């Protein structure tokens, strides 16, 4: 690569997978870019003195701005390091981080949830005043593992803590949640896959408070790293820290040497110092316009390049179009907002009870109890989605992948989508190390496109793509140790598979896009391999490699359409009505309509009395009604004031995306004489009733607080909110329809309307 600047006719330079390139000199690189103005560079092109944030995925525009600002402002060398503390939960990482900050051991300090960021005083502890060191204390509990990869840096020093008592995979209880220990071999494989064999690791046996506790670390043979040292460590005793510090300083010196002499324009450093002052003064975030003003004062040519560099280097959070279009200075504050969703005391147990589904109001009751912070709620939700902690399936409806149920708990929903179909194509994407982050991110990317019509579990999904007319089943799982090959063992792998089965009209094209999206977007270390289990993609098949498209502008996962109910062999008809006794008008009409259409073998007819068994969930059946092809809706005074009937009506409203035409096409209304919805005053009176129900229930829950009122009360309140927000619209739609109001004609007219709607649906 040192002679590449001599090639002046290049238009495209692809460097993906070229991880051992020698660095170009800054002068040659500058000449190269000036001589090749139409050159497009993809991949890692290392350049001496230019920070890797700009060259790792080569940002040509930012590099040119770096040259300009260096020439106009001068430069300074930067000596800053990250120190990452990893290991099982409750093993002592937080206590060691405290001692590095000259704070005393305190056993009352709780274990880390998420990530804690701190700065080390390098003058007093290490006698290195020129150094700027930031510690990243990662929560070791497995619920947090899947977000670590967002912050892992190949140029950091890693303090990996282990203890003989946690060298197992046992589940232990931690604040209401079962967490699983990870042995040292797992953590080493984890770092090998994320950072590579040259990771700078100091392996620390934690809690070695006395010399007799020292023991040999169970490092696999052969040693998978070129730079791995071990030491006993104690945060509790000064002697244990004295053993640790010399090796720690040595690791820091080595990393500084490896990182090389990095230049930053003086204007960039001036802005970084100003941002640091703002952060120290308590400023959590600033608008991008305010950041642009700071850059203008220090004559920075393109503020966006500096903002992207600061994000890539881990100094701030910034992404155009997100985070309220601002720059987050206080990362720990922002991360705590994100990790609230994984809170082991309140959020996770509650979310698991909800099968992972929640709304903003759910979080307000569980987590966001400080009304002063309401303006930050949308920012936290945005960050949660950016970190794949959750994904949106509908307006103000989200799913947290870590709280999803097991596959075995939702087999009925999966079967309802797959319908005993035979897959046309099956393949496996095999990873050397299948990270939790990869599994979560794949599911989040699919879910944010497929939305609420898909069926989700941890970590998998099944859905019918209504746009491409395909059924898809995807599931991630780790290979058990009994399934490891000798090559896996020799190369220190912890393999896993993403299994995909697909059938339908456009199965080949769809699977190609889905597989490429997964491979291109979600891998650490070596790219995964694709194994064809059944079928293949015509003229694209390769048993050892999946041929990725070159230079495509198509975004990963962009072709996934909305999930919907799959086509049925016969249309489903559900009944929504208020229960009554024989002789009551609404019950007699319901019985007569049901008996007549249930006798039609071409229809799949369901009514709660006839379709539910003892022990079945009423709530689940109410949701199934909304997803039916057609709903016979008996509207009576009793149903309008029944919470169950109105919940069913609200679910229909939202299932139809709040679109009147969609609602009318599937709802077959039977409006009885006592249903008062014909005038605006009558409809508003009904809406007022449900608003009062919501307000009174909300007030009671607020008085008792969420913990005392119970999770089901909070869920019921959210259902009342759905009723409140849909009541006026949906009753107006019903009153606008021409329907038979004469009781003795309603049965026949209803059946005729149902038959007509079915014919209309078949034509489309």
Automatic annotation (TrEMBL):
<dbReference type="Pfam" id="PF16095">
    <property type="entry name" value="COR-A"/>
</dbReference>
<dbReference type="InterPro" id="IPR032171">
    <property type="entry name" value="COR-A"/>
</dbReference>
<dbReference type="InterPro" id="IPR035897">
    <property type="entry name" value="Toll_tir_struct_dom_sf"/>
</dbReference>
<dbReference type="GO" id="GO:0007165">
    <property type="term" value="P:signal transduction"/>
</dbReference>
<keyword id="KW-0677">Repeat</keyword>
<dbReference type="InterPro" id="IPR027417">
    <property type="entry name" value="P-loop_NTPase"/>
</dbReference>
<protein>
    <submittedName>
        <fullName>TIR domain-containing protein</fullName>
    </submittedName>
</protein>
<dbReference type="Pfam" id="PF13676">
    <property type="entry name" value="TIR_2"/>
</dbReference>
<dbReference type="InterPro" id="IPR000157">
    <property type="entry name" value="TIR_dom"/>
</dbReference>
<feature type="domain" description="TIR">
    <location>
        <begin position="573"/>
        <end position="690"/>
    </location>
</feature>
<dbReference type="Pfam" id="PF08477">
    <property type="entry name" value="Roc"/>
</dbReference>
<feature type="domain" description="COR">
    <location>
        <begin position="265"/>
        <end position="404"/>
    </location>
</feature>
């Amino acid at each position: 690569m040192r002679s590449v600047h001599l090639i002046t006719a290049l238009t495209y330079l692809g460097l993906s997978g070229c991880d051992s390139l020698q660095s170009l000199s800054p002068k040659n690189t500058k000449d190269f870019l000036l001589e090749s103005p139409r050159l497009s560079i993809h991949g890692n092109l290392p350049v001496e003195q230019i920070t890797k944030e700009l060259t790792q995925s080569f940002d040509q525009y930012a590099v040119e701005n770096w040259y300009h600002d260096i020439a106009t402002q001068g430069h300074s060398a930067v000596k800053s390091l990250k120190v990452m503390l990893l290991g099982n939960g409750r093993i002592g990482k937080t206590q060691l981080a405290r001692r590095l900050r000259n704070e005393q051991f305190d056993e009352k300090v709780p274990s880390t949830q998420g990530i804690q960021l701190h700065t080390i005083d390098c003058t007093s502890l290490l006698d290195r005043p020129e150094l700027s060191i930031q510690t990243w204390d990662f929560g070791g509990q497995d619920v947090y593992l899947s977000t670590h990869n967002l912050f892992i840096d190949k140029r950091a020093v890693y303090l990996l803590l282990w203890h003989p008592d946690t060298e197992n995979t046992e589940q232990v209880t931690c604040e209401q949640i079962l967490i699983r220990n990870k042995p040292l071999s797992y953590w080493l494989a984890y770092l090998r896959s994320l950072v590579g064999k040259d990771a700078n690791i100091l392996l620390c046996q934690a809690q070695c408070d006395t010399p007799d506790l020292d023991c040999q670390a169970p490092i696999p043979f052969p040693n998978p790293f070129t730079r791995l040292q071990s030491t006993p460590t104690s945060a509790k005793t000064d002697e244990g820290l004295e053993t640790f510090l010399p090796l720690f300083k040595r690791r820091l010196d080595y990393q500084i040497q490896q990182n090389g002499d990095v230049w930053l324009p003086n204007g960039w450093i001036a802005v970084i110092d100003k941002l640091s002052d703002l952060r120290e003064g308590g400023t959590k975030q600033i608008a991008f316009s305010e950041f642009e003003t700071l850059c203008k004062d220090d004559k920075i040519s393109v503020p966006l390049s500096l903002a992207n560099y600061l994000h890539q280097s881990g100094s701030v959070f910034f992404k155009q179009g997100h985070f309220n279009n601002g720059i987050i200075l206080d990362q720990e504050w922002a991360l705590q907002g994100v990790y609230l969703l994984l809170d082991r005391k309140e959020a996770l147990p509650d979310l698991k009870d909800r099968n992972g589904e929640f709304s903003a109001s759910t979080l307000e009751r569980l987590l966001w109890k400080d009304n002063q912070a309401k303006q930050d709620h949308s920012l936290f939700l945005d960050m949660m989605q950016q970190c794949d902690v959750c994904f949106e399936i509908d307006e103000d409806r989200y799913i947290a992948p870590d709280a999803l149920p097991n596959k075995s708990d939702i087999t009925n929903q999966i079967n309802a989508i797959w319908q005993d179909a035979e897959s046309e194509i099956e393949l496996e994407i095999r990873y050397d190390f299948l990270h939790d982050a990869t599994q979560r991110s794949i599911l989040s990317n699919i879910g944010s496109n497929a939305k609420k019509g898909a069926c989700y579990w941890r970590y998998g999904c099944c859905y019918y793509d209504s746009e491409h007319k395909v059924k898809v089943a995807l599931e991630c799982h780790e290979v058990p140790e009994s399934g490891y090959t000798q090559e896996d063992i020799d190369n220190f792998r912890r393999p896993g598979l993403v299994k995909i089965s697909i059938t339908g009209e456009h199965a080949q094209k769809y699977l190609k896009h889905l597989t490429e999206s997964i491979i291109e977007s979600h891998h650490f270390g070596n790219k995964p391999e694709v194994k064809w289990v059944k079928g293949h993609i015509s003229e694209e098949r390769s048993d050892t490699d999946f041929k990725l498209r070159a230079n495509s502008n198509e975004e990963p996962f962009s072709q996934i359409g909305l999930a919907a109910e799959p086509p049925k062999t016969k249309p489903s008809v559900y009944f929504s009505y208020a229960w009554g006794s024989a002789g009551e008008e609404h019950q007699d009409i319901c019985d007569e309509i049901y008996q007549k259409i249930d006798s039609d073998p071409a229809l799949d007819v369901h009514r709660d009395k006839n379709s539910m068994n003892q022990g079945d969930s009423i709530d689940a059946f109410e949701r199934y009604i909304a997803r039916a092809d057609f709903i016979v809706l008996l509207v009576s005074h009793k149903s309008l004031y029944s919470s169950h009937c109105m919940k069913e009506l609200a679910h229909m409203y939202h299932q139809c995306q709040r679109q009147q035409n969609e609602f009318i096409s599937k709802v077959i209304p039977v409006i009885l004489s006592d249903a008062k919805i014909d005038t605006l005053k009558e409809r508003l009176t009904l809406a007022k009733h449900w608003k009062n129900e919501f307000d009174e229930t909300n007030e009671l829950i607020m008085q008792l607080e969420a913990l005392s009122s119970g999770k089901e009360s909070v869920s019921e309140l959210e259902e009342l909110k759905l009723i409140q927000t849909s009541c006026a619209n949906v009753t107006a739609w019903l009153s606008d329809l021409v329907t038979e109001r004469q009781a003795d004609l309603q049965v026949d007219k209803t059946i005729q309307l149902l038959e007509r709607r079915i014919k209309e649906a078949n034509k489309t």
